[in-house]
């Protein structure tokens, strides 16, 4: 799959406000340490459109159902992008979608709809309020879904491969 440059980026929701779990927060749910939150949670109504933050290629799109014990992703999409001048490759991750309009290998444009926010408190999307988990990943691609949390000793990912999504979007420029 070819790399696609994105001269611009935008937020994945029309109104992007981190009103759920922020990036980097150490989370304990029902007494279990989940670890450091690797994205930002935006609580919004189910059915809200989620849009691609820039031009890119879909490198992951799959449905990860949860259950009563462990909520999961619902539909999750990961898009690979590249900065036009720095040639830096980065990935945007969108979790808890109720559906996915995209498949692996699809190309996407800035602002293109990817799906919409799934219903909350369901086996499909996880037993929590309807929300978008949005993350920016700068590490090596691993051909499978990326985790939403990191804790000490977890070798699936490294915390330094993740950045604060809202800052990344706000500060992005093509120079
Ligand atoms: Zn989250």
Properties at a glance:
mainly beta; 7-stranded antiparallel sheet; globular
Q: Would you mind describing this structure in some detail?
A:
The protein is mainly beta and 175 residues long. It is 4% helix and 35% strand. The strands form 3 sheets. Strands 3, 5, 6, 7, 8, 10 and 12 form a 7-stranded antiparallel beta sheet that branches. Strands 1-2-11 form a 3-stranded antiparallel beta sheet, with no helix packed on it. The longest helix has 7 residues, at 165-171. The model has no long low-confidence stretch (mean pLDDT 92). Bound molecules: zinc ion. Zinc ion binds at residues 21, 37, 39, 41, 133, 148.
Summarize this structure briefly.
This protein has 175 residues and is mostly beta strands. It is built from one helix and twelve strands, in the order ββββββββββββα. The chain has a single domain, classed as Glucose Permease (Domain IIA).
Topology:
Layout (H helix, E strand, L loop, with lengths): L25 E4 L2 E6 L2 E4 L5 E3 L4 E9 L9 E9 L6 E9 L9 E2 L4 E4 L14 E7 L11 E2 L11 E2 L1 H7 L4
Bound molecules: zinc ion.
The site of zinc ion has 6 residues, from loops.
